[in-house]
Amino acid sequence: MKNFIGTENGHEWVDLGLPTGTKWATCNIGATKPEEIGDYFAWGEVKPKEGYSFLNYKYKSHEHETFKLTKYNTVRRDGENGFVDYKTTLDLEDDAAYVNWGGKWMMPTMVQQMELRNECYWEWTEDYNGSGVAGCIVYKAKAEADKGSVWDNEYKKPSASYSLDDAHIFLPAAGERGFNGALLDDAGPYGLYWSSSLDPSGSEHACVVMFTSDNASNYDGGFRENGYSVRAVIPGE
C-alpha cells in the first residue's frame, strides 16, 4: 500500500499533506470507488431519499405552509415561532459521514474545504482513470505555485508533473438532486459538496464547494433542502 493511503473503520483515506493533518476519503458517502457518484443528502440529513425540496426537508416546519426552520437557525425571522438555536455546525447525529461510516469520519467544515482549496492542485478531467466519469482531481501540491491554482479562474497548467500515482482524491461531478424530485440535475457539468458549516450570513443556506469544467469556488449559497454529495474527512490530531 502506498504510504499516503490508509483506512479508518473500513473506508480508505488519502493524506494530501495538509497543514492541519486532515485526511480525505477516497470516495463519496454511498460509493465504493472514487469514480462512483454515491448518495445525495440534504444538509443535516443522514439518509438519501427519492426527492429533495423544502416540502420534505427534515428541519423545516410544514405547518400552515410557513416552512420555517426548526434546527440550525441564527435568524429569528427564519425560525418556527421565532426559534433560534445559534448552532452553526452540524451535530454528529446529523452528520452524514459520521452516521454512515462511523469511526473518526466527519463531514468537512468550511475551513477544511478552504484548506483543500488553498493547499492542493486541482485539475478538471472528462474521464477519470478510464471510467468515463468527469470531475476534479485534487492532488497534493508539489510546488507552491500550484496551490489553489483553480479557484475563481480557469484551470491552469501545473509547474510540476502530476499523475494518478501521486497522492490525490477524485471528486466526481455528480450534480445535484433538487426541486425536480427524483431527477438528477446536471451530473457531469458540475459538482457540489456539502460542508458541515452553516452559511454565516443566513440560515437558509449552508457552505459548499462547487466546481465546473471551467473553475471552482467555495460559496455559501447551497439551499439546505437540496441533495448534494458528501466527501468525508478525518480531522488532524
Question: How would you describe this structure in keywords?
Answer:
mainly beta, four-stranded antiparallel β-sheet, 2 helices, globular, 237 residues, single chain
The tally of domains stands at 1
Got a strand count? 12
Largest sheet: 4 strands, antiparallel
Helices, by number, come to 2
Whole-Å distance between the termini? Answer: 22 Å
Task: Give the C-alpha Rg.
Answer: 18 Å
The run of helices and strands is EEEHHEEEEEEEEE
Structural class: mainly beta
- The poorly predicted ranges are none
Overall mean pLDDT stands at 90
Helix share bin = under 10%
Strand content: 25-35%
Strand order of the largest sheet: 1-2-3-12
Large-scale geometry: globular
Task: Give your account of this protein's structure.
Strand 2 (about 10-15) and strand 3 (about 25) form a beta hairpin. This protein has one domain (about 10-235). The protein is mostly beta strands and about 240 residues long. The longest helix has 10 residues, at about 110-120. It is built from two helices and twelve strands, in the order βββααβββββββββ.
